[in-house]
């Protein structure tokens, strides 16, 4: 099951963010900044944060999209900064929910992600394209 994240989910999301960060061995995580960023993303309607939860309602995955001004266009952009789930099928559900959220936000012109090809199942690329994301170089973009 997926649902919008709440402040009760902050620690679970933070723990997953720290775990995922390990693949970037040259980056030292700023734990205070990460935790504050998660809280802000959950607390602000302009960002997207949904979680995948198990039967005990504990987060086992998350998709975070951060919205900001677009340097090149008049409207905003939203970048997926974290997308992970260990519950089969919920990663797809999170991406679909994100796509629908983007479509409901006329202020956002483009959304997407630049995947790390060393860590993501290659089937994800085909899934993203089937959902309407277009490949541009190493990024997958959804125009609104």
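-> sequence recovered:
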């Amino acid at each position: 099951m997926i649902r919008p994240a709440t402040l009760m989910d902050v620690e679970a999301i933070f723990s997953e963010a720290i775990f995922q960060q390990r693949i970037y061995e040259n980056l030292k995580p700023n734990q205070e900044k990460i935790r504050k960023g998660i809280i802000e993303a959950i607390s602000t309607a302009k960002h997207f944060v949904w979680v995948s939860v198990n039967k005990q309602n504990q987060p086992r995955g998350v998709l975070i999209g951060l919205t900001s001004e677009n340097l090149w266009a008049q409207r905003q952009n939203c970048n997926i900064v974290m997308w992970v789930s260990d519950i089969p099928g919920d990663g797809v559900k999170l991406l679909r929910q994100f796509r629908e959220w983007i479509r409901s936000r006329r202020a956002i012109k483009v959304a997407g992600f630049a995947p790390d090809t060393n860590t993501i199942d290659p089937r994800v690329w085909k899934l993203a394209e089937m959902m309407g994301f277009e490949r541009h170089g190493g990024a997958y973009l959804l125009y609104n």
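The two ends are 26 Å apart (CA to CA).
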